[in-house]
Amino acid sequence: xxxxxxxxxxxxxxxxxxxxxxxxxxxxxxxxxxxxxxxxxxxxxxxxxxxxxxxxxxxxxxxxxxxxxxxxxxxxxxxxxxxxxxxxxxxxxxxxxxxxxxxxxxxxxxxxxxxxxxxxxxxxxxxxxxxxxxxxxxxxxxxxxxxxxxxxxxxxxxxxxxxxxxxxxxxxxxxxxxxxxxxxxxxxxxxxxxxxxxxxxxxxxxxxxxxxxxxxxxxxxxxxxxxxxxxxxxxxxxxxxxxxxxxxxxxxxxxxxxxxxxxxxxxxxxxxxxxxxxxxxxxxxxxxxxxxxxxxxxxxxxxxxxxxxxxxxxxxxxxxxxxxxxxxxxxxxxxxxxxxxxxxxxxxxxxxxxxxxxxxxxxxxxxxxxxxxxxxxxxxxxxxxxxxxxxxxxxxxxxxxxxxxxxxx
Amino acid sequence: xxxxxxxxxxxxxxxxxxxxxxxxxxxxxxxxxxxxxxxxxxxxxxxxxxxxxxxxxxxxxxxxxxxxxxxxxxxxxxxxxxxxxxxxxxxxxxxxxxxxxxxxxxxxxxxxxxxxxxxxxxxxxxxxxxxxxxxxxxxxxxxxxxxxxxxxxxxxxxxxxxxxxxxxxxxxxxxxxxxxxxxxxxxxxxxxxxxxxxxxxxxxxxxxxxxxxxxxxxxxxxxxxxxxxxxxxxxxxxxxxxxxxxxxxxxxxxxxxxxxxxxxxxxxxxxxxxxxxxxxxxxxxxxxxxxxxxxxxxxxxx
Lengths: 409, 302
Prior knowledge:
Chain A is of the alpha/beta class.
């Protein structure tokens, strides 16, 4: 069945097809459509699940983890400040080693408050122990939820999965989405088996008890790290099975025209479709350019990235996030991953798309020029914020109005 | 307490919670928990918020023959919600049998119950969550060295009110719970075991949100000899400072009304946290202020 779905509806369809049992929820723009859709389906008997409205994301994530530890399949979703409010418990859920899928609809963080997207929210959750999948299309949103459960519930992994989609650019954009049948999905994703480690009378379990000293603490933290690394290998196999069943490729890293490319763009999320269009235009004018798009960000698919980057001349890393006083987070991650290479490409850092700010085709061409020149000189310029003189003038105008000194006509 | 009442309410089992935990000697919270757990039994899952009792289970040991989940300081009721919802789903979808059902029991100190966890608690009561909430109230942040909490009584010295004592008024958590119209709210204390036992049994006979608010005399935080823990607890009740009461069916009922209340200072003078009210000079005005507050409480009952 093929339907026009928003990214939010696609996320809800993913949960519906995964036959989830439990939905602890709390609304936040631009995620709200996901939980409203699921609530409506429950009301009309389309899903046999229970929805509980919690009073905060902190409680929502706690209830989600506790229910998963009791042995039911759990889905929930949040965004931005909500993800940060839940942050304390994200670490706990990873430590509890409970499988579930949490969708984050990316949105810039306060202050100033905004509703529009960038990736500082989801990258703040980078180190919490959740595995992370990043989507560029509405189809990927639905598929990632299904893949997420297969990955999270694998007994060798048993870690929660975060699926990220960009607010507005994906959450409210309709695209044709192939909705698999319930039977097809059941063959790929069997019912949840919690294993023996769950809360039930007659089989007492103590979970997340205190440890004294660094030895047991280090042991448990490191076990979760090893499980994350194992998840990378298992993801590859699950993605192959997914492709065999559904015909859609789901590599940990998508590569587009990389084989003969000299210059590569690296992006995650929905803006990667703009980079893809820019690659097409640049190729049409004879430039050897490609795009690398990590879908899997935790575990970080270092081996795949190294394969794609080795021997390339230059890379434009386009971050839609900003680590104050440092720069783009993906840039740092890639630099670390590529450091051991003897023939490593020159990395140039760009920061753009903050708070939903567009990245234009012209800017992709300009970034390409900057990287070409840097490759020529062998010298990477400092990180650059994508921000035009016109935009600066517009902000100055607002400041004048705010200060009461400007022309408001 | 009469002998027959004691027998009627006496526990069939003792020692459900294993001994040898790292709680302080003379911990009033542990005394109460032993009694409560004997009645609850092992078909329970404790959902714990950070506090003294978090240290009951230290890997790889646990004194609980039932289940246990540590959440975080602010959200134990939400953990109980997730477990209750999941168990209900598993029962309705026949994936577990009735005998595998569990009672979620939130276990927190006053720091979480009166403060950081109050929002999650309020919301869980609003949702009508079927759970038992135990707060062991030692009137301060116990295992971090006894700083003031919202449950600290006026005048008590703590690590964050070292000179004149705590300037605030102990928050009325009992009334806050009652305002939510839950199934059951009770105050109790381990040194009145018959009263405590009746209340645990009453709580177990009901469904919905239920609170046992247990005063937990704390030798290290309050400054008294561990051996005096039961005496101090009895004085908390007999001075009228810790009224034993319960809320059920929309009515508040006192389960014990001291016939002749012992003067409050008999309770205060035994505790290091109130020593500054007696030495080097006796603070008559402050002492009578505290006594008046107790007197007013009982005078306003009618």
